[in-house]
Amino acid sequence: MYQESILYPYLRALIVTFSFSLFSASTAVSSSVKESDLIKENVLFYVDEGNVHDFQSINSLFDEFKFLSDHSFPEIGENQIWMKFDLRSNEKDNSYFIEFPDWAEVELYDLSDNVKIGNTGVMTLLEERTVVSGNKNLIPIALFKGVSENYLVRLKASHEYMVTPTDLSFKTYPQAKFNEENLLRRNISYFFLGVFLIMFFYNFFVFISTNDRSYVYYLMIVGILSITSVFNDGYLLEMLPLNSELVRDFGQIDVILSSMLGISILLFVRRFHQLTTFDPLFNRITLIIIASLVLVTLPDLFGQVALSANLSSLLGLLTFLFVLIISIRSYLRKYPSSEYFLLAYIFFIAGFMTYLFKSIGLIPSSLWTDFSMLIGSSIETVLFSFALSNRINILKKENEEKQEEIIQHLQVNSDLQTKVNRELEGKVMERTKEIKDQNTKLHKQQKELITLNEEIRQQNEEISAQRDMVQEKSKLLENAMLDIQRKNNDILSSINYAKKIQNAIFPRKEELDRHLNEHFILFKPRDIVSGDFYWFKEHNEKLALAVVDCTGHGVPGAFMSMIGDVLLNNIILQTQNPERILYALDHGIRNVLGQDKGGDRNDGMDLSICVIDRAEQTLTYCGANSPLFMVKQDGEEHLFTPNKCAIGGHNKKEKIFQSRVIPLEQGTNYYMYSDGFQDQFGGPDNRKYMSKRFRKTLLDGSAFTMETQRQLLNESFENWKGKGKQIDDVLVFGFRV
User: Fold this and answer.
1) In sequence order, what DSSP letters do the residues of 571-603 get, joined into one string?
2) SS3 for 156?
3) How many of the other CB atoms lie within 10 Å of CB of 502?
4) How many alpha carbons lie under 13 Å from residue 653 in its C-beta half-sphere?
5) Which class for 485: exposed (0-12), middle (13-18), buried (19 or more C-beta within 10 A)?
6) 193 with 230: CB under 8 angstroms?
7) If one looks up domain 506-736 in CATH, what number appears?
8) Measured between alpha carbons, how far is residue 146 from residues 44, 140, 506 in Å?
9) Per-residue pLDDT tens for 37-73?
10) 343, 336 in Cβ contact below 8 A?
11) Which of 271, 290, 501 has its CA nearest to residue 388?
12) Averaged pLDDT for residues 702-714
C-alpha cells in the first residue's frame, strides 16, 4: 500500500508539490482489486472529544451523530471518531473485507448482535489484528443477499504515523478476489526481491575481486532496495514476531530508510563521477545534501514523523533533480560509462513518471503501472552494474596502453644505445688513425684527446643512466604483469563461485533417481558457467522435465539460465500443460528483458519440455526449436520436430506452440538435447558432427543401460572433438520409462 513511500522520496516530493497526497496515491496501489457492489446507507459519524466513550456508552449518543454527506471531514487531532453505517448486498451470500485506510486504531462492531467483529490499524500489533495482510487495515464480514446489516466502527488517528486520514471513506472487497490479487502482488514483490539479491551477490563478488569502493555504495543502494521491495506492502512486517513493537515504528523506519537510500545514491554518484577531482562545486553541494538527509531524521527520532516525512519529500525532489543534472553533464562531457548511468536514470524516470501519471489518474491502474517504479529501479540497478563493469574495462585498457608505451620507450632506448655505440666506435677509430698519422703533432693534439676522452666519459655516463632507466621500467612492467595476473585470478575465482550457485539450482540427483527409473545427463559446459540447463519438477502427481539452451555462453548465458529456472518454477505451479508453459515462459522472458517495450536485448532460449502423467500413461511433449528423439525397445525410432519459434526475442510474428501426446511404452528411450553436441567441429575433416550422426549414435547405444549410454556419448564427443576447442555448451538428457 505504501510502495513508493520508502523506495522513492522523489515521487513523494513531486506529488506533494502538485498538491496530491502521497499516501492517497499509495492507496490506489491496493485498489487495483475491484471494489464490491455493496450498498452503503445511513453513514453517520460522531467526534469523541477527549476519547471518553466506549462501545457501551456510545449507544446512548446515536441522536448526536451527523450525516457524513452534510459535513466536511473535521479536524480531529488525537480524538477518536465513531461512525455508524449500514451495508446491504443484492448479490448472492458472500464474504467480504472492509478496509479503513491509514487509521492507527480500528474496532468494528455488529449493532444487530452488539458484538465486536474485529480489530485492525497501522499502529495495532499483529497479534491484535483480526486479519494480517501486510499493512492493510482489513476486517472480514459476511453478508446475506438482500439483508441489511448495521455496523459501528471506532476510528483513531495518530501523529506518530506519517499519514493522517483525510476522509471517512472505506472500501469493501470480495474476499476471494482480494486474496487472489494479493497473492499475485506478493509473488511479484518477491520476484523483484530475487532480482535485487542476485544483483547484490553478483556485484559483491565483483567488489571482492576488484576492491573498487564504488561497489560499496552500489551494494548499499541494492541492499536498501531489497529490503523495501518487501517492506512497502508490509510483507516484511508479517515476518516479525506477532508482538513486535516495530509495527508501531513503521513511519520512523520509512523516513530513516528514505534518508539512507538518498545518502547511498549521492555517495555512489559522487564516487562514480569523481566529483571530488573534476567538479569541486557539485561535490560541495552533494555533501550539503547528504548532511541534510542525516539531519532530517532528527525530528523523526523525537516522534515528529510527519515533519520528517515532509522534509524528506523536499530533499527527495532536490536529490532527484540534482542527480539528473549531474548525469546529463557527465554525458555531455563524455565521461567514461556516463551513457550507462544516464540510461539507467532514464529507466528510473520512466518508471517514476508512469507511477505518477497513474497516481493522479492520467493513465489507468494496473499491475504494470503499480509496479512501474520497481521495474524501473531493477533495470536501473542492472545498468548501474554495467556502468561499473565498463569502468573496470576502461581502466584495464589504459593499463595495457601504458604497458605498450613502456615497451616502445624500451625499444627507443635500445636503438639509441646502439647508435651511440656505433658513433663512439667510429670516433675512436678516426682519432686513433689521426694519432698514428700525426705523431709529429702529438703535443698539439694531446689537448684534443683529453677533450675527446671527457666527451666519451660523459656519453658513457649517459648510457649507464639510460641502462638504469631501462631496467627500472622493465621492473615496473614486470610488476604490472603480476598485478594483471592477480586480478585475472580473482575474477576466475568469482566465476568459479558463480558456478557453485548455478549448480545449486539444478535438480538434485536424489530427486531424479526417486522419480525416474533410469536416466542419464551428459552436461559439458563450454566455459566455467553455462547457458544450458536442465530442469525437473514434480507437481500434482505429474513429472515435468526440460532441457533449455539459453542465448550466449559463460556469465551472460548463466544469468539467462537463472531467469529461466525462476520462471519455470513459478509457471509449473499454475499449469502443467507444456504448450501453456511455453507461452507463459515466452511472456515472462519478454517481460523481464523489456523486449515488448523495444529494448535492445534480443536474448531468448530454445527448449524441449515433457510432462509425464503416470496415471494416464502418457508423455506430452512441446518444443521451441528443440526436438524430442524416441527409440522404442524393438529399435524403432521417431523424431518429434519442435515448433519453429524461440522463447523471447524481438520476433513480432505470432508464436504458436503445439503439444504432442505420446502413449508410454515399456522400455522406450526418450532423449532431449541442446544443439551443442551436433554442432561440434572435429573428425578427420574438421566438420560438424551433425544431427543425423548424433541420432544414429543415440540409436546404436539405446539398448544399453543409461549410464553406459552416457559414457558412450561422452567418448564419441571427445573422440570427435580431439584437440580442438569446444564451441558450445553440451547437454543431453535421456530417460527410460
Assistant:
1) HTTT---HHHHHHHHHHHHHHHTTGGGT-S---
2) strand
3) 21
4) 7
5) exposed
6) yes
7) 3.60.40.10
8) 22, 19, 56
9) 777 888 888 888 888 888 888 877 777 777 665 445 6
10) no
11) 271
12) 95
Scan for cell 565498463, then name that residue. Answer: 390
Residue 54: per-residue pLDDT: 87
Beta strands in 481-579 (DSSP E): 518-524, 532-539, 542-550
Q: What is the spatial distance between Cα 70 and Cα 306, in angstroms, rounded to a whole number?
A: 29
What are the residue ranges spanned by the domains of the chain?
9-179, 187-396, 506-736
| Helix, strand or coil, per DSSP, at residue 4 | helix
Is residue 433 left, alpha or beta, with left meaning phi > 0 and alpha meaning psi from -120 to 50? alpha
Give the residue from 105, 96, 180 showing the smallest Cα distance to 139.
96
pTM: 0.48
Q: What percent of the chain has pLDDT over 90?
A: 27
From 2-6, 265-269, 341-345, 497-501, the region with the lowest mean pLDDT: 2-6
Average pLDDT over residues 264-272: 85
DSSP string across 317-328 = HHHHHHHHHHHH
Give CA separation, 271 vs 212, 218, 265, in Å: 10, 10, 10
Instruction: Round the CA-based radius of gyration of the chain to a whole number and report it.
Output: 36
Nearest to 13 by CA among 352, 520, 399: 352
CA distance 593 to 606: 16
φ, ψ dihedrals at 645, nearest 5°? -155, 150
Cα dihedral 69/71/77/82 (nearest 10): -50
What dotted CATH number matches 9-179? Answer: 2.60.40.2380
Sheet holding 669-673, edge to edge: 518-524, 730-736, 669-673, 628-631, 637-640
Read off the C-alpha cell for 59. Answer: 449507544
Edge-to-edge strands of the sheet including 148-156?
A: 66-67, 39-48, 80-88, 148-156, 105-110, 115-120
C-alpha cell at 704: 544399453
Q: Return the C-alpha cell found at 497.
A: 563461485
Which position has the higher pLDDT, 205 or 553? 205
Q: Which three cell numbers stand for residue 362?
A: 492520467
Q: Which long-range contacts (CB under 8 A, 24 or more apart) does 35-38 make?
A: 35/171, 35/172, 35/173, 36/89, 36/91, 36/94, 36/96, 36/172, 36/173, 36/174, 37/89, 37/90, 37/91, 38/87, 38/88, 38/89, 38/96, 38/143, 38/172
pLDDT at 68: 62
Instruction: Give the SS3 label for residue 87.
Output: strand
Provide the terminal-to-terminal Cα distance of the chain, rounded to the nearest Å: 50
What class, spelled out in words, does domain 187-396 have in CATH?
mainly alpha
Residue type for position 397: K
